Amino acid sequence: QVQLVESGGGLVQPGGSLRLSCAASTSIFGFIVMNWYRQAPGKPREVVATVTPGSSTTYADSVKGRFTISRDNSKSTVYLQMNSLKPDDTAVYYCNAYDLRARDRVNYWGQGTQVTVSS
Questions:
Q1: SS3 category, 14
Q2: What is the C-alpha separation between 96 and 49, in angstroms, rounded?
Q3: Measured in whole angstroms, how far is the alpha carbon of residue 48 from the centre of its chain?
Q4: Is the Cβ–Cβ distance between 81 and 71 less than 8 Å?
Q5: What does R_g of the chain's alpha carbons equal in angstroms?
Q6: What distance in Å separates the CA atoms of residue 107 and residue 118, rounded to the nearest whole number?
Q7: For 88-108, what is each residue's pLDDT tens digit?
Q8: Phi, psi for residue 31 in degrees, rounded to 5
Q9: 61-88 per-position pLDDT tens digit
Q10: Is 30 helix (H, G, I), strand (E, B) or coil?
Q11: β-strand pairing of 57-59 with 46-51
Q12: What residues have CB less than 8 Å from 39, skipping those under 6 apart?
């Protein structure tokens, strides 16, 4: 079982920065793949960034060069540093996790945090 709690969302002007955090309550964080998803009004949920237990990362094309995902295994926490924010980045951001070892993938989700980019 994995419980996820996000924080760090808010209102920011275009070009600004925010850092999201996702704290995981689990004893198996070292085996967990962590993802950030987002969902804008009227649009499907999309994956933004992924970090594996070994800290390999992947990004959606729309955020490459602007967002950075990282993890601190000692704190069981994943971060999303968002720079050069655009109005199109406005969405609810969700932390997602799954156990890399599991035969049948079970997705765990946080409650979401709102990010609004507006002047």
A1: coil
A2: 10
A3: 7
A4: no
A5: 14
A6: 31
A7: 999 999 999 999 898 888 999
A8: -110, 5
A9: 999 999 999 999 999 999 999 999 999 9
A10: helix
A11: antiparallel
A12: 45, 46, 91, 92, 94, 112
